[in-house]
Design goal:
Blueprint: E1 6-10, H1 16-23, E2 27-32, H2 36-39, E3 49-52, E4 68-71, H3 76-81, H4 86-89, H5 97-113, E5 119-123, H6 128-131, E6 136-138, E7 141-145, H7 180-190, H8 194-204
Parallel strand pairs: 1-2, 1-4, 2-3, 4-5
Antiparallel strand pairs: 5-7, 6-7
């Protein structure tokens, strides 16, 4: 019998959440629509299990044995609309379906388990206009859901550079928006910082 508690990592990307969780004694199963490590020629961290599946097709009842759900739905739609450009400001509201799916999955998981399963959803500051105020943030990482009462302060910079953190220049702006190098840099910058995922892991263990 596996005594490690189970965490579900939705939109797992480069496994920023899972790395910290695994190091602190959890086992994780990550879900995403593509293998980001294979895409960029990177080696997947040890013990990070990946399931290639659209999160929208998941039903939370399959996670009734989980002790925690973490999620980092795509932020591009929110980030772009927060840019100081007329074209960005003129766009229609973003699609919140991926963000909303996280809370649907949590609700379904809790109903199937007969208990509360905590969840933390991470995104960018610009998402607040469309999904409501975040409960906590670390730098440009913003969090919704079951945020612990005591959270340390981390200096964390996310995709957006000086549009979200005054005085911090984004290295990605030196690269073509369609270049593989920029896409990989964006994925790396969006990755949850290890000290932060470790803190969450220890709090819920």
């Amino acid at each position: 019998m596996n005594e490690r508690p189970l965490a579900i990592d939705l939109f797992c990307g480069l496994f920023g959440w899972s790395e910290g969780l695994i190091q602190e004694g959890w086992r994780t199963v990550g879900f995403d629509i593509e293998n980001m490590h294979a895409k960029f020629g990177l080696q997947r961290p040890p013990h990070c299990q990946l399931v290639i599946q659209d999160v929208l097709t998941l039903h939370g009842s399959q996670f009734k044995d989980a002790a925690l759900i973490v999620a980092s739905p795509p932020c591009q739609g929110y980030s772009y609309r927060a840019m100081p450009w007329k074209r960005a400001k003129a766009l229609p509201p973003p699609d919140n379906s991926l963000f909303d799916a996280c809370f649907r999955i949590q609700r379904e998981a809790c109903e199937a388990a007969g208990r509360h399963i905590p969840m933390i959803v991470e995104n960018v500051r610009g998402a607040q206009k469309w999904v409501g105020p975040a409960r906590w943030n670390s730098g440009a990482f913003y969090f919704w859901g079951d945020i612990p009462a005591l959270m340390p302060i981390f200096r964390a910079i996310k995709c957006g550079g000086d549009w979200f953190e005054p005085g911090v220049k984004s290295e990605m702006r030196k690269l073509s928006s369609r270049s593989p190098a920029r896409k990989m840099a964006s994925a790396m910058i969006a990755k949850i910082p290890l000290p932060l995922s470790q803190h969450i892991a220890r709090t819920f263990l």
